[in-house]
Amino acid sequence: MERLSREFFMLPLEEKERYPMAPGGIQGYGHAFVFSEDQKLDWCNMLALGVSPAFIRQPMLWPTTPAAFTDTLERYSAEVRALCHRLLEHIAETLGLAPGTFAGMFGDAVQAVRMNFYPPCPRPDLVLGLSAHSDGSAVTVLQQDAGRAGLQVLRDGAWVPVHPVPHALVVNLGDSLEVLTNGRYKSVEHRAVTNGEQDRLSIVTFYAPAYDVELGPLPELVADGEPCRYRRFKHGEYSRHYVTSKLEGKKTLDFAKIN
Ligand SMILES: O=C(O)CCC(=O)C(=O)O
Ligand SMILES: [Fe+2]
């Protein structure tokens, strides 16, 4: 998948623009989270694709070159989906819940993939690869080039690099899981920095409940006397809010917070 994604990004621009991300759109090749003419853009080209359920797919945006791209993405996504299931089972267990709790409530879960390609940047001090944000997903599975650092997570107020480990995946928790667990698990704030010499590729799968699933803290996870920290809303509402907001740390989660 990594090789084919790189091959895609190496295609001439005209070729990649056959799969354009529409202004305000979230799928296709281009720049997501662009809301104004004078906004400073992140130093990143993206190919974002809805994978499942079938109705979120936009087959016209799935590249036909390289030829093996679609089949490989299909197989890759099936494996990552199985991994997300397993992760959520284990996460449920850590919370004292039955392993199938999340699978049961997520319905026909939403799975989307984003390939981020960061070209070498002449002034890494001036621009970010991807601005600080948390993912809206429940869990995110991220694959990055061996030897090419760029991802950083915010821990205790400081940015900590996540060094790529060969053949290892990074798992990030997203906002949906923070809401469902009433904040016992926190979504991680992260960003990508640019690099003066090397380009970098990341392949990121977002796994989240179906859009019509109502999110809110699971009653089992709100202890007696503990405040309910997030309100109830449909995941689709949050998703719309998320994709129409600037990437600005964990600000999008204010949508859900009860103050
Ligand atoms: O490139 C990275 O490591 C970060 C990507 C990311 O956070 C995202 O696509 O949501
Ligand atoms: Fe992210």
Tally of individual domains: 1
What Rg do the Cα atoms give? 18 Å
- Bound ligand species: 2-oxoglutaric acid, fe (ii) ion
Q: Please state roughly what percent of the residues sit in beta strands, choosing from under 5%, 5-15%, 15-25%, 25-35%, 35-45% or over 45%.
A: 15-25%
Main CATH class: Mainly Beta
The chain-level structural class is alpha+beta
Q: Mean pLDDT score, rounded? A: 94
CATH topology: Jelly Rolls
Full CATH superfamily name: B-lactam Antibiotic, Isopenicillin N Synthase, Chain
In CATH terms, what is the architecture?
Answer: Sandwich
Q: Which blocks of ≥5 consecutive residues have pLDDT under 50?
A: none
Distance separating the two termini: 43 Å
Strand count? 12
Q: Major sheet: order of its strands?
A: 1-2-3-10-5-8
What percentage of residues falls in helices of 4 or more residues?
10-25%
Coarse morphology: globular
* Assembly status: single chain
Strand/helix succession:
HHEEHHEEEEEEHEEEEH
Q: Biggest sheet, open or closed, and with what strands and sense?
A: 6 strands, antiparallel
